[in-house]
Write a structure and sequence with these properties.
globular
Amino acid sequence: MTALIPFDNSYARELPGFWVSCNPEAAPAPELLFFNRDLALALGLNPDVLGGPDGAAIFSGTRVPEGAEPLAQAYAGHQFGGFSPQLGDGRALLLGEVIDRHGQRRDLTLKGSGRTPFSRRGDGKAAVGPMLREALMGEAMHALGIPTTRALAVTSTGETVQRERPLPGAVLTRVAASHLRVGTFEYFRARRDTDRVRRLADYALARHDPDLTGADDRYLALLRRVAQRQATLVAGWMNVGFIHGVLNTDNVALSGETIDYGPCAFMEAFDPGAVFSSIDHGGRYAYGNQPAVTRWNLARLAETLLPLIATEDSEAAMARAAEQATEVIDAFPGWFAAALLTRQRAKLGLTGNGAGDHTLAADWLTLLQEQRVDYTLGWRRLADAADGNENPLRSLFADPQAPDAWLARWRARAETEGGSPADLNARATRMRRVNPAVIPRNHRVEEALTAASDHGDLGPFQRLMAAIQRPYDETPEQAPYLDPAPAAVTACYRTYCGT
């Protein structure tokens, strides 16, 4: 009989001592709330089988499928700048890995399946609302073309978890390119276990950068690749107004995927200082701080790799390794800026490289900030202006004449790439392909999660999920999901980590 999920578990097989074996807790009454058929097909799984009772049993942790080797991964992390030498999977278990239809290895992890040896004082459980939030956010990011972990399933458990009030329990099944984190390296570096840092780095190279495995400078090259992936990722976040909310080193994946959708949110009125996380009291992880914080996190990774980058065990070799690693960390802002400008040019409808494009984009953002314009709609309505209809854009501004001077500069720049009616139409079409109309608006997310958690009504969640999976479509059925929340609602909106 063919296994329901064809596991091939390299992490368990190749890295003993990096994890602790642990079984999930059975759920009394598992029921699928969300099942991602498209993702199941991409993984080479049978959605007709896993979308039913068999899937509910597996994705709730009630049944450990054949071939799985459930384990809790060890890692440390800098959390809000302070180092915690032992964190680990306190409510998550890596079931195993599968090879998808493109030959890529993918992790399947349960989140909320009960206590593990790393749970400390936690119960290891999760609630319906936060797990559905992670499913929504992951699918939104995927639809926006931003690297991300994704939810294969969300399963209610039939039991209650105690938070500030009793809540219905749930388990998320998360799919990731891997769960290797900066914090994974920090865990073994903190224990001065250079051998295990090396084994972990070799595993990361083989899994994510196999072309580097034979290079003499492979560990420095690994740092460079991770930094470049993070530069691209964070540029993607900034491009759509996404705020991670808890950008600790244990939430920075070497794969370059967005991981751990806890107190995250999408910005509405443009504000570099926007913070929605209830635990980010000082604004460390504000929207505008994300590039600098990511660079700081990468410096922590660099510290763990210095003994490997050094060509020999000497003071001079370590000093040279530090110089080389610093060059990579110092290159990060340039990589990020280039990745962001490429995306901003596309959002502006530009195809070439103009010397003043950076200033043009920066001045547009300043204008949005001064006028408190909704970030998503400001860009989207700019596409209407490209088509010759400026009224929808001007209606977003407190002063409808405020964008006059900037629009004149933008049109002059755009016309250097063609000003015929066909050019204008093509420009507007391109802009609508990269400037979303629909994002997971915070008030819509809360409406959907409240309905599901408090009333067992999945309708709002399902409708919102359908909308965010088509972010560039501006159709009548999408219309309810375009408008931002009232300013008074956004001003007091807070997100929570769900633990």
